[in-house]
Write a structure and sequence with these properties.
elongated; 591 residues; mainly beta; 38% strand; 4% helix
Length: 591
């Protein structure tokens, strides 16, 4: 009910009676008109029920989908005249708990909406466009802002008819926020000894603007005060002792979410200090030649108390009695984050020779009234390259200086202790770590500079690279005897010594030309009876053989890389009445 005389359109498939007894439902077909009739319906007392119907026929007929009369609160008796179903002296919303900083601002971390009473009910979060069946006596909302009248609760009767629809947030938007603030301030702070109690020693900050700050009981809370609005932390009394105190700060956002952060406040003597970091030198704190060409020196200044106008007055490098000082073109200290960087420059890097150095960065602040000379770091400079390695291989070829070998082992020498050495077979494109003092080449041809060897010391200095200056051919394939040749030969007694007893046929590769690149030799017990032509493999007796007998010898074929293949043959000296065949050719008939 609102003002007397108000007219509303409702769905009225069944008749019902309103509780206050002054409202009457007038049906018009499938629609209905509700008139709050009382003495105040018309000031001239001339309005009648017929007048009400007549004046609203067009409105009722024009409505296709009727709206539902919405009451401000279901089932709550109200003795006042404001019609909102609430007690004027109590702004508490009966549906949710307002946990915000103000308990009536509609901002809450409690996303549970409570539905009172028994019976079936539904709820809507889109102004009644869609209703969802309720379960139990509550439902939960996702984080977000819900405009006025967006959240509604519909009570149903036993057969599913609507008894009432109630707005959860009739006067204010409802804001659900279950996310705590996040602290953005540091967890440690340094305070100068004897700092006055009125000085702000720390300011708490979060990712939200509207936050209330308080201190949690425990630790050393009794020593501190905090401004609820600004988060400024102060000591209650001047601190005269060097010690550390802890306190937990609570940040409560407008929804009532609480975040906590423990901070440690260290009372110290005021001063400046800086970290000192060499870039790109690794964890060994040693600088090699390559690193020296690119490294920088940098750091972050730490401030104890209040220090302004911070600058670097000098940087000193000391090795024993040798001192190099940089006093010009010094890096500046960034006022935003107190960082500084000394860029790489040959002017100062060239002064650092082999050995251990102590680096001191001298600081100044407060127009020179605060200084620091205690910030140091020690590092070792080692820019000396290891010796150039050497290598060799066994040239097994014929001759022994042609770079052709059947032995692919490369022996490496002049290696320093504790180093890592590597070799490349692709002209230095990539290196493989070596093992012991040798490596083996695969069969193939390696052009000049293809094979390279280097060594790297413990701090990363790289030696000069050794390279082959002329090609190396690695050939590990043995030569091949003609498999069609027999392993025996026959001659007659008294055959002339110029007669070919056997002609060896050997190729360096399958399908190659016989005898090309092959050197022949013989061995065995009877080798002194024969001669063999080194380039052709033709075997002859040294003397005329007069008696019948057999001689077995071994023919050795050696290719240009020194690979050897052997074949044993038997030469039979015997009579033949009708002549004989020697090495496959018919000889004269001496019958």
């Amino acid at each position: 009910p609102t003002e007397d005389g108000g007219l509303y359109h409702i769905v009225a498939d069944a008749s019902f009676t309103l509780e206050d007894g002054t409202q009457i439902v007038y049906f018009y077909g499938e629609q209905s008109i509700v008139s709050t009739e009382s003495s105040a319906v018309s000031t001239d007392d001339t309005q009648s029920f017929s007048d009400v119907i007549t004046s609203n026929i067009g409105v009722v007929a024009a409505v296709v989908v009727a709206a539902v009369v919405v009451a401000s609160s279901s089932g709550n008796d109200d003795d006042d005249d404001n019609g909102n179903g609430d007690n004027d002296d109590d702004d508490t919303n009966p549906f949710f708990t307002d946990t915000g900083l103000s308990d009536s601002d509609g901002i809450t971390k409690d996303n549970t909406i409570t539905v009172d009473g028994d019976g079936a009910w539904r709820y809507s979060i889109d102004s009644g466009v869609n209703f969802i069946a309720g379960v139990g006596n509550s439902f939960t909302l996702s984080d977000g802002t819900y405009a006025v009248n967006v959240i509604q609760i519909k009570k149903l009767d036993a057969v599913g008819g609507t008894l009432s629809v109630t707005n959860v947030n009739e006067t204010l938007p409802l804001v659900i926020d279950t996310t705590k603030s996040v602290f953005t301030s540091l967890t440690t702070v340094n305070v100068k000894k004897d700092t006055v109690a009125s000085a702000t020693i720390y300011t708490a900050t979060t990712n939200e603007e509207r936050v209330t700050y308080t201190l949690k009981d425990g630790d050393q809370k009794e020593k501190f005060t905090i401004d609820n609005t600004t988060g400024e932390l102060k000591y209650k009394e001047k601190q005269t002792q060097i010690e550390t105190h802890k306190v937990t700060i609570i940040a409560t956002d407008v929804a009532g979410n609480k975040a906590e952060q423990l901070i440690a406040v260290s009372v110290k003597v005021i001063g400046l200090s800086t970290s000192i970091v060499w870039s790109g030198i690794g964890d060994d704190h040693k600088i090699n030649a390559d690193e020296m060409a690119t490294t920088t020196l940098s750091g972050t200044v730490a401030i104890i108390g209040t220090v302004t106008s911070i600058n670097i007055s000098s940087i000193v490098f000391k090795q024993g009695d040798t001192i190099h000082t940089i006093s010009n073109n010094l890096p500046s200290v960034d006022a935003n984050d107190n960082t500084w960087t000394l860029d790489n420059n040959d002017t100062w890097t060239s002064q650092l020779t082999q050995g251990d150095y102590t680096v001191t960065v001298n600081l100044s602040g407060n127009s020179g009234s605060v200084t620091d000379s205690s910030s140091t770091t020690t590092t070792a400079v080692d820019t000396v390259k290891p010796d150039q390695p050497a290598f060799d291989f066994v040239d097994t070829g014929l001759p022994d200086n042609d770079g052709i070998t059947s032995n692919g082992v490369i022996t490496v020498s002049n290696l320093e202790a504790g180093i890592t050495w590597g070799y490349s077979t692709n002209g230095g494109t990539s290196f493989t770590n070596g093992i012991n003092s040798s490596f083996t080449l695969n069969e193939g041809t390696y052009e000049a500079n293809a094979i390279q060897i280097r060594q790297i010391d413990a701090v990363g200095n790289v030696s000069d690279i050794s390279k082959i200056t002329s090609p190396i051919i690695v050939d590990t394939t043995d030569p091949i005897f003609d498999q069609q040749q027999p392993i025996t030969a026959n001659i007659s007694p008294n055959t002339p010594i110029t007669t070919t007893v056997y002609d060896a046929q050997v190729t360096n590769l399958n399908g190659g030309t016989a005898d090309e690149g092959i050197t022949y030799s013989i061995k065995g017990t009877n080798a002194d009876k024969f001669s063999i032509t080194a380039g052709t493999g033709i075997l002859t007796y040294k003397t005329i053989q007069t008696s019948v007998h057999d001689d077995t010898i071994t023919i050795v074929a050696t290719d240009i890389a020194g690979n050897k293949t052997e074949k044993s043959i038997t030469v039979s000296v015997k009579n033949s009445a009708q002549g004989f065949y020697a090495n496959g050719e018919k000889a004269l008939d001496f019958n």
